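Hi all, long-time lurker, first post. I run a small reading group and we've been trying to get comfortable going from sequence to structure in the token notation. Rather than ask abstract questions, I figured I'd post a concrete chain and ask someone more experienced to write out its structure so we can walk through it together at our next meeting. Sequence below, copied exactly:
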Amino acid sequence: MGALHPDMQAMLDRRAALNLPGFAEGSVADARRTFAESQTALPKDRGAKVSEIRDFAIAGPQGPIGARSYMPIDRRGDARIVYFHGGGWVFGTLDGFDPVCRQLAAASGFEVVSIDYRLAPEHRFPGPLDDAWAALLMLAEEGRPIVVMGDSAGGNLAAALALRARDRGGPHIDLQVLLYPVLSPDFDRPSYGVYGAGQHFITRADMMWFWDHHVVGEDRVHPEAAPLAAARHDGLPEAVIVLGECDPLHDEGVAYADKLRDAGVPVALRHHPGMAHGFFTLVDILPAANAEVDAVGALIADRIAALRHDA
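-- Answer (accepted) --
Happy to help. Here is the structure in token form:
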């Protein structure tokens, strides 16, 4: 069992001092309130400076989908990173993930577009994914290089988009970046047993609660709900997978990297000892978050350049 990094432990201790209930301990409204209160307690004005932030709407299957574009000051190219926030499909806002999108735009030199997809349980699977798909179709229209990226439940959506785009013949996705993604409703993997009891931010009970609100019945084995269950993983875009060691979701991320590699898909697996679920988005709070966002942003820029050179 890996120990939490002191910085990560200090962050979790500060959160525990807020005495907020666990996500699975109450109603959906309670979970959303817990998220909002935890966000309010974080320092303000986080993330790098960007040249432009623009809110706009995308036509979705059930109405307009909110989106926010971040344009870097030093632009390296015309690639576009389409970002899907975490929150167990149940909560999460554009504002809540604003700092990481700022930092990512600056680090990559590319436009980042954050998508405010519909949430469960009001909109169960495939509702959030259908919004993500509508966003991808619209944002890919210009033929610019496209990266799909997301953390946790957003990583689930990004992975599912790669599968759907392959199976429907496009649009072309150049790279998928999955940050401790949700990939399987198997709660008995060893990392759940070691890190899912409650001392590492997200719990086994939380993840079961999230799945119960988002995906029901036979849909749980649908590959677009559980990408690890897909019958085949060949023909998917190159992947970057970022994992924290002290995360119940760690093992399914490793399993997905193995599946992709076995299918011939290039994978960069980035493993972070001592980090818990959600660490990537804590820019200007955890030094490891800033370092990893900057490293992943540079990696995205390098891979897009290489892929375009090889094309």
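A couple of things your group might point at:
The beta strands are 52-60, 63-71, 80-84, 111-116, 146-151, 175-179, 238-246, 267-276.
The chain has a mean pLDDT of 96.
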